[in-house]
Design a protein that fits this description.
- A hairpin with a 4-residue loop joins strand 3 (58-63) and strand 4.
- By secondary structure, the protein is of the alpha+beta class.
- It has 8 helices and 10 strands.
- The chain has helices at 4-18, 132-135, 148-155, 162-167, 177-187, 200-221, 229-236, 268-271, and strands spanning 22-28, 47-55, 58-63, 68-72, 77-82, 97-103, 108-113, 121-125, 255-258, 263-266.
């Protein structure tokens, strides 16, 4: 799933390649991708793109005197830029293509989604705050005003485990499964530690790990072409997706806890005092 660093890089890439150009065609290939119908998706056509913004994991294409085209790539969605789009009409139901956006230059991008869950979402709205997912977003962790005091206030009464709290978009915007693993590894904390139980020193360590991990990931992604962002993300991860490999910090074997629809990775030596976590839905430290 694309998370804050990759979406930030896509925002920069699209700013460079879209702003100042006119959208001449928006073609939904999979009807399931459209989450709004008024105004219609064709309302974007004929308008110049004036800016591209990021809200958490959402991308917002702003048009002059027209609506916003907002996208959430979800778990299996991606954006593919093409300097020259294929001619002809794509056939619905044939492959992963969900939506195509064409510019007056002949360039544009495709939104695709692998798998069968179909969570990729596109909204056409007058204001991005009309998108429910954006309206309920928490603060952006890389914003200038997101300081340690504000972070501590968010966690003060949070009775959930750290892994779940970091992934909650209404608490903090943009962090998903992969970077929550990376942040907790950098902070040397168990994913199942209760957020409200953190000492001030631990809160400071987690805040530093959050900002540093995301900032470094953004810098690695900056300037990378859209088609290479997935590979760049994977290459920069220390523990997530690396079950069975040695921890790059201590050399211990990276372990995994599996859930019904996801998994997490961690280092026992760095994060749980050397004790492995039980690999079951309601995991606890093994006695």
């Amino acid at each position: 799933m694309p998370e804050l660093p990759e979406v930030e890089a896509l925002k920069d890439f699209l700013t460079e390649n879209l702003v100042g150009h006119e959208v001449v065609r928006v073609l939904p290939v999979a009807i399931s991708v459209l989450k709004t119908y008024n105004p219609p998706v064709t309302a974007v056509e004929g308008h110049e793109v004036t800016a591209v913004h990021r809200y958490g994991k959402f991308l917002d294409l702003v048009t002059a005197d027209g609506p916003h085209l907002v996208t959430h790539l979800a778990r299996a969605g991606w954006l593919h830029w093409k300097d020259e789009l294929p001619s002809g009409m794509p056939r619905p139901g044939k492959g992963p293509l969900a939506l195509r956006v064409a510019l007056e230059t002949g360039a544009g991008f495709d939104l695709t989604e692998a798998g069968t869950q179909k969570r990729l979402a596109v909204y056409v709205v007058g204001d991005p705050q009309e998108v429910p997912g954006i309206a309920r977003l928490g603060p952006d962790p890389l914003a200038d005003d997101f300081d340690e005091t504000r972070f501590a206030a968010l966690l003060k009464d949070e009775r959930r485990q750290l892994k779940g709290a970091l992934r909650d978009q209404s608490l903090i915007a943009g962090v998903g499964n992969a970077y929550s693993d990376e942040i907790l590894h950098a902070a040397k904390m168990s994913p199942f530690k209760l957020a409200a139980s953190l000492t001030p020193e631990e809160t400071g360590s987690l805040y530093e790990a959050l900002r540093t991990t995301l900032t470094e990931a953004v810098e690695r992604s900056r300037g990378v072409a859209a088609g290479r962002l997935k590979a760049e993300k994977k290459s920069g991860l220390r523990v997530h997706g690396r079950t069975g490999e040695p921890c790059p910090v201590c050399g211990d074997t990276i372990r995994e806890v599996s859930f019904s629809d996801s998994s997490l990775q961690y280092c026992p030596t760095c994060q749980t005092g050397g004790k492995p976590l039980a690999d079951r839905r309601l995991s606890r430290l093994l006695k």
